[in-house]
Amino acid sequence: MSAEITDSRTAGGSGSSGGAGGSGGSGEPREPGVPSGLPVSGAAPASRAVPPAASGFHIPAGRGADGPYALDISPEKAGWGYCSLRILDLPPGGHHSFATGDSEWIVLPLSGGCTVVTDGPDAGNCEDAARSASADAVSCELAGRESVFSGVTDFAYVPRDARVRITSGAGGRFALTGARCERRLPARYGAASDVPVELRGTGSCSRQVNNFAAADVFACDRLIAVEVLTPGGNWSSYPPHKHDECRPGEEAELEEIYYFEIAAAHGTQGLGYQRVTPSGRGRGTDVLAEVRGGDAVLIPDGWHGPSIAAPGHDMYYLNVMAGPGETREWLICDHPDHGWIRGTWPDQPVDPRLPFYQAPAGDPR
Prior knowledge:
The protein is mainly beta. The protein contains two helices and 23 strands.
């Protein structure tokens, strides 16, 4: 008997005006809003104008659960304009239906596989519509993966103003990365074999980046999303960087969500640390969070990094970004006190534990 989980909510609110084009990179440094509706930890600085319910930017696992989602971050809850992230756990035979509203989404398997059926435009009753998809519905069979540490995954892009049904025969855990947008692009499949796997940094700054929805890799209207894997004991998102103001050709204004999974070892859960420091101009995001599997950190602004993996525990994080820029691009500015570290990388080897894996040679479907 299958389990039916239905969410008839839209992404909420209306997108801002202005289109988005398509060039740029990924969400964690490569070589040359405040939360208002989420229970969180870490004090929000008094220098920022924050909604009354705001208390910080670190969301421990389970504290951001809402309805069918183990984690539900929306623009309204985060107190910003664009980024969303939902984590969905489905039992074997489970189903989930939702309306995309004014946001574009990518369904990304974290563990397990699923079928994603997109039907649109959104007519209002998501549950009824999902049970009888129209003839022009788009169906994507996602092979998925065992875990975020086992391989690159395929994924499904679903547009705004649509109805979506996710079904998983064996069950699994799925990330729904979203961004408010203006253009309605076609629903489509993203093959694991098309995901560029990149190694960044050297020595103790070595990490792997799966650029599945980087701005210059996969077409979206506003959404940018990548995965980063950091071997235990290493630092990533380093040197600290920011993307909180629009400076054409130099820096893009992007909100960002970090979602973490930590590899267990010797019967222990594992942990890591995430740092965010104020970038000035009245922007005061200041976070030092101990993060564990299922945690998230919201970054409306500020210098972010390092992301530190404890020795013996590999770290994974999913970066979700979007912003108001007319061009969809990832442009960052290194912290002036720490950017020099890049100059030391050519003299060191890449960590031999990398890559964790490569993209498969062909489409597994």
